[in-house]
Automatic annotation (TrEMBL):
<keyword id="KW-0456">Lyase</keyword>
<dbReference type="GO" id="GO:0006629">
    <property type="term" value="P:lipid metabolic process"/>
</dbReference>
<dbReference type="InterPro" id="IPR017946">
    <property type="entry name" value="PLC-like_Pdiesterase_TIM-brl"/>
</dbReference>
<dbReference type="GO" id="GO:0008081">
    <property type="term" value="F:phosphoric diester hydrolase activity"/>
</dbReference>
<protein>
    <submittedName>
        <fullName>1-phosphatidylinositol phosphodiesterase</fullName>
        <ecNumber>4.6.1.13</ecNumber>
    </submittedName>
</protein>
<dbReference type="GO" id="GO:0004436">
    <property type="term" value="F:phosphatidylinositol diacylglycerol-lyase activity"/>
</dbReference>
Amino acid sequence: MYHFLKEHPTETIILRIRNGEHSKDFLETIKTYLAPDSRRGDRIARHLYSRHAKDGTVPTLGELRGKVLILQDFKTSPAGLYGLPWGPDTISNYDHEIAPGTHFLVRKWNGVKSHLSKAPQPGSNKLRITHTTASTGVHPIDIAARNSPHVGMNNLLGQYLKDNEGGCFGIVVMDFPGKLLVDLIVKLNKYQAPELPSLHFDSTDTYTASEDARET
């Protein structure tokens, strides 16, 4: 991660850390890696976005460039000791797991679209995260890139973004995104992107990474 940020100082890494078993060993391990005043901790601290532990404000992308933002999905005292505390006051998250069988894709997409379409409340400072991914009971590439009987999540997302529905989308987590899908997101970010060619939506799934990616 540090090498990536050194090579790309205008980028940022957002890292969610969660404690699945709520064990004391987990917190001790985190402390070993992230506590200051140690060789390892001081090295990591140089790359982390830091703020006062009681500050639950979501930083801007400009503030995060060249840094790692930890989404702290585990409890500490005070809350948010190592990063932005994960909770309903700071995060608006959609991560519904898809059930076994790709016939649940439509239900998954409806949830994704609903979350993307919600306009932020005036004065809201929540970080919005929408997962289009699947990991339970199906192969992620089947959900991202399928064409029949329903088009994949990447095609659905690409068409949605192409139509420019909604406004601020926040973070969209995807599997196997292709160049066209990435270009659409960059364009919506208005990040000095060159004017993109006319976009055509069809069943070839050009919103998904190449066939080589399916074999990895």
